[in-house]
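Worked example 3 (structure in, sequence out).
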């Protein structure tokens, strides 16, 4: 079995990829996926994107310590795309380690879990920006939502998009994909793994016209002039022209994967038709 590449990894100047793999058994295979976090370093402040899964926080914390050295701007802000555990489950631990950090995004219900930290909550709307010094973090439209409160973000310094559950897919540990960007994982069947992830984690996409969402997503990438895509659950994308069409094909193929005769028979606990 191939060795895992280590994180943190600098995806673009001042943008670091953090996290660890999660094993996902599915249809006789074991896929790996990330519940990643990212660190943006500006000249005046650093910002954490996502908190990672609770099981990964000790790993993420150690990775952050490697980046946040004495000559790096201090960590002042945290942005969470939405309240699901793989994205926000480490919030309490972040607050214990960095008790003055401000928390950004759709913060609708964080006050219920952390009433003592209400003064740190900063709601954001699409278009709101946070100045990190030499670069801004801007809240953007969440084209693919996992929850009503989902929100995406964009780093103006290196044109990096943080789409949360957008561009979500797994990878092959046995081929050494862990810690690689999508373009380095040459054996990865991106169409297949994108469709599988859509079935498992974004089931609503099986019953929607996903071409509408693909068109909106492609427009967002053009409007923002995105150079790098840093998804929470997939390998980062550094060559959009090469990789985005494959990811979009997988998103469109998810419905066919699920709504086959076999899947439909299983869904309704009925025998398959006899031919």
């Amino acid at each position: 079995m191939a060795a895992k590449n280590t994180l943190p990894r600098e995806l673009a100047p001042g943008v670091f990829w953090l996290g660890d793999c999660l094993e996902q058994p599915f249809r006789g295979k074991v896929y790996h996926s990330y519940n990643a976090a990212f660190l943006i370093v500006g000249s005046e402040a650093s910002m954490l994107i996502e908190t990672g899964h609770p099981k990964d926080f000790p790993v993420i914390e150690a990775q952050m310590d490697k980046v946040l050295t004495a000559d790096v701007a201090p960590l002042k802000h945290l942005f969470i795309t939405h309240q699901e555990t793989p994205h926000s489950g480490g919030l309490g631990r972040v607050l214990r380690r960095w008790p003055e950090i401000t928390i950004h995004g759709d913060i609708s219900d964080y006050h219920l879990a952390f009433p003592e930290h209400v003064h740190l909550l900063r709601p954001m709307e699409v278009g709101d920006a946070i100045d990190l010094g030499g670069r801004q973090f801007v809240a953007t439209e969440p084209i693919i939502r996992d929850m009503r409160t989902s929100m995406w973000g964009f780093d103006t310094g290196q044109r990096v998009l943080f789409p949360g559950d957008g561009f979500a897919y797994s990878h092959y540990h046995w081929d050494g994909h862990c810690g690689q960007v999508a373009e380095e994982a040459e054996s990865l069947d991106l169409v297949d793994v994108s469709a599988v992830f859509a079935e498992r984690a974004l089931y609503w996409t099986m019953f929607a016209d996903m071409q509408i969402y693909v068109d909106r997503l492609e427009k967002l990438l053009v409007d923002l002039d995105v150079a790098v895509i840093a998804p929470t659950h997939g390998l980062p994308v550094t060559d959009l022209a090469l990789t985005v069409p494959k990811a979009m094909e997988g998103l469109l193929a998810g419905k066919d994967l699920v709504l086959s005769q076999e899947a439909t028979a299983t869904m309704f606990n009925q025998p398959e038709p006899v031919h």
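Notes: The chain has a mean pLDDT of 85. The helical segments are 57-67, 85-88, 91-97, 110-113, 190-201, 210-224, 240-258, 261-267.
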